[in-house]
Amino acid sequence: MTPETFAARIGQWGRGTMIASHGTRFVSAGQGRAEAHLDFKPELTQLTGLFHAGAIIALADETATAAALWETNPTGAFRPELFPLTLQMSANLIRNTNHGTLVAEAEIVHRGRTTLVVDVRVSDAERRLIAKFVATLLAPTVPAGSAPADPAGR
Questions:
Q1: pLDDT tens profile 17-40
Q2: DSSP bridge pairs for 101
Q3: Do residues 68 and 38 make contact, with C-beta atoms less than 8 angstroms apart?
Q4: CA-to-CA dists, residue 52 to 60, 96, 127, angstroms
Q5: How far apart are CA 140 and CA 123, in angstroms?
Q6: What is the rounded CA–CA span in Å between residue 100 and residue 98?
Q7: If pLDDT is split at 50, 70 and 90, which confidence band does 76 have?
Q8: Residues 68, 137: contact at Cβ < 8 Å?
Q9: What 3-state DSSP class applies to 102?
Q10: What are the start-end ranges of the E strands in the chain?
Q11: Where are the alpha helices (DSSP H) in the chain?
Q12: Residue 77 gets which letter from DSSP?
């Protein structure tokens, strides 16, 4: 499965969740990396009209999770028992914007036995750095030969 196909699959899984409600679009997810976009809209702003920090953090978390998901379950079948959960995230919010599209790029920098560490950069439409994150995610594993929890591959 290509990173673009896997990203589309993650987008399908996200229907009806916060991911869909605020508009995250996964562009690619695979081979230790992920990219997602978030368009500016008034519902995602703070009182000053700029992106709310929570929206930026959510985008970074979703993109880190997408990168980690390929590592924990690259099959493309939805398996909740293999879903990587964020344990810790540090954020440096550098600047903000009130237009355009945010681009989050995540890269796995460490794959341990039980955790993954992912660097995430969020940039604006002009490729200026908006925020920098480091996320630590739980990397669940299921013994070989275990049947998927959802055979339909939801």
A1: 999 999 999 999 999 999 999 999
A2: 39
A3: no
A4: 13, 9, 19
A5: 30
A6: 7
A7: confident
A8: yes
A9: strand
A10: 25-30, 33-39, 86-93, 101-111, 115-123, 129-138
A11: 3-13, 18-22, 53-72
A12: S
